[in-house]
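Hi R.,

Here's the chain you asked about this morning:
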Amino acid sequence: MLTLKLLIFNSILATLSLATPCLALPLSPGDRVKVNIPEGEEFNGIFEVNLNGDLEIPYISPLPVLGLEPEEVQNNLTTVLIDGAFFQPSFLRVNISVVQWAPIVVFVSGATFLPGRVFINELSPGEKTQPPVPVAGQYPPNRYLAAAIRDAGGVTPTADIKNVQLIRNRETRIINMSGVLTGEPFEDVALIAGDRIIVPDSGTMHNDLVRPSQITPTGVKVFLSNLTQPSTSNASSGVGRDATSFPYGARFSQAVVAANCAGGTRGTNAGRKAVLATTEQLTGKTTYIERNVNDILMHSTNDTNNPFLKANDSVVCYDSKVVQFRDIIQTILAPIPILRDLLK
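And here is the predicted structure, written out as tokens:
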């Protein structure tokens, strides 16, 4: 009976070990590691993983380390040194620690705003020029899956973040990243150079994805124009020469307010019109919608009437019919004083 319980317990432990993700970061080209072997000074030093994914340590053949965790590299180096008769097994002690994590290149495709080749964990100017400080245990927060998706522009509102694909060495792994938005734990996988990430497109709009997060844009820039009423210029309307930034998830109505297209005298301004123009980045096709300013603010009930703003959208405000009629009358009457003065 005791033997059966032990077998069951060991089976549970084995299952948990397979289900629990490994938190160690695998090595990639450019990573720098420190090798320390007591009484083995000829093998000690700081070494960089070369483009082939090997460590070039003196007196031994290049040691493959690409995709391996530091502990695995430590065990492999121990085996190589013992098999090469450099040390006796009872006396050999090998320690390998990472002293600098390099930037790496991964490839992101699918439902992101800027798919393509992504360079993550880029070093600061000081780190590029100064030798690495031999401090073990450094943590690179920008060499993980969420950082790569963020650097690819973030996911689009139609992304299926429950089935993100990570392809490494021709093996595909499905990762559920919905915890990024809900606060639940999720597996943020450590990446190595050459990893491929595919974010599937669900074909359905998900409004919960249109807000700032670790895998969505933090904001968008929109061009605003409001030339006459209720203000006489963009400067007095608080509209700058460059695009105005909005938090990701802002809507058409908020751009209308930011452009000072709303407010003022109801009789002249409530009937103003606002146009939202959107240009698709890939096709160059421009679409637009026109809405009454008062309706946008008071009667918008869905995404069609009051859509989310996209990067590089343009919002233009036009005066009401009352103001247009007034301007026409003023144009007609303007020459009268001049003619009267001439006749005098």
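One quick note: The two ends are 123 Å apart (CA to CA).

Cheers,
M.
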